[in-house]
Amino acid sequence: MRTSKSENVPFLYEEARKNHLQAGFLADLACIDKLTEKDVHTLLLPPLKGVPASQLAVIRKLHARGVSLVGCENVSGLEDLFGVEDTGQFTRVQHLRGSRGFLAGQSEFCSEEKCLGSHRVRGARVLLQAEIPVLTLKKNNQAFAAFFNVPPTFVNVDRHIRLGYGRNSISPLINRAAGLLLSKLDRSPVKVSDGLLVACRSQKNHSVILVENPSENEPLLPELRIRCEPGLRLLRSASVPCTMLKKTAKEIILRLTIPAEETAVLIFQ
Question: Across 202-241, where does the E strand assignment appear?
C-alpha cells in the first residue's frame, strides 16, 4: 500500500540534491525545539494533521525567526502561515499549469485518481494551478511558506516498483517546480554548479565541504561558491585540484576537478 505522507519529504530531499543544493538532515518533530534559525533555513514538513500543538508552536516560532516552510497535503494548525484554507472537500487534479513568472506556459496532465487536494487560497500566491491550486507560496516577513495541495509524488509516477525504494516521480512539471522552489528558499553559504553537495561543521569548528561526482565515466569541473563567514574564509586542505577564480572579502569561487565516482573534500576554517 502506498502512503504519500512517507514519500513527500524524501521526494523534496532528492529534488534538492538533483538541483545541486546542500543536503539537509533528518530530524524528529519531537526534537525540533532544539533547532534555531542558525541551524536551519528551511523545514520540509510531513502532513501535519495530528501533530501536537506544542510542536506546531515550535514550527511557528522558527518561522517567525526567518525559517521557511514547505508543507504537503495538509498544514493543520498553521494554515494562516501558508495562506490556505481546508475546504473539507477533495478535488481531483488532472490538468496542471504554470503561472506568470513561474513555469509560465508549461502544463501537464495527471491520470492518477488519488491525486486529490482540499485547500483553497487565503492570501497565498498560486505557483501551479489545476482544477484547484497545486502549489502555493506566501511570504511572511523574511521567510516563505510553500504548500503542495496534492501529494507531489502522485502527479505522475514511474510504474516500475523498486524493491526497498519505491517509485520515482516522472512528472517534469512537479520535479522542476520543486527544484525551482527549493533553490529560491536556499540560504546556504555554500553553492555548487554541479554535483552532489554536503557541508557541515566539525567538532573542531572547521567547515567541511564535500562535492560528489556521480558520473561513472566523466570528470566533473564544478564551480564552488562560498559566502565568507566565520569558519569559511581560509582553505586548509583539498583532496582534489582546485583553482581560485575569485576571492573577495564577501565571496570565494573555486573551480574543482573531480574524477569520475570520486568526492572532493575541502576543509575551511
Answer: 207-212, 223-227, 235-238
Task: Pick one of 2.60.40, 3.40.1130, 3.30.920, 2.40.160 as the CATH number of 190-268.
Answer: 2.60.40
Position 1 confidence tier, pLDDT thresholds 50, 70, 90: low
Cβ neighbours of 260 (radius 10 Å):
12
Q: Note the pLDDT tens digit of each residue in 124-177.
A: 999 999 999 999 999 998 899 999 999 998 898 766 555 544 567 778 999 999
Output the CA–CA distances (angstroms, integers) from residue 249 to 140, 204, 223, 227, 269, in the order listed. Answer: 31, 23, 18, 9, 15
Cell numbers for 185, please give them.
Answer: 528558499
Cα within 13 Å of Cα(260), Cβ side: 4
Of 124, 125, 122, 172, which is closest to residue 152 (Cα–Cα)?
172
User: Which CATH topology does 4-185 take?
Assistant: Rossmann fold (3.40.50)
CA distances in angstroms from 106 to 97, 116, 125, listed in the order given: 6, 21, 17
pLDDT tens digits, one per residue of 59-68: 999 999 999 9
* CATH 3.40.50.880 domain range(s) in the chain: 4-185
Question: What pTM was computed for the model?
Answer: 0.90
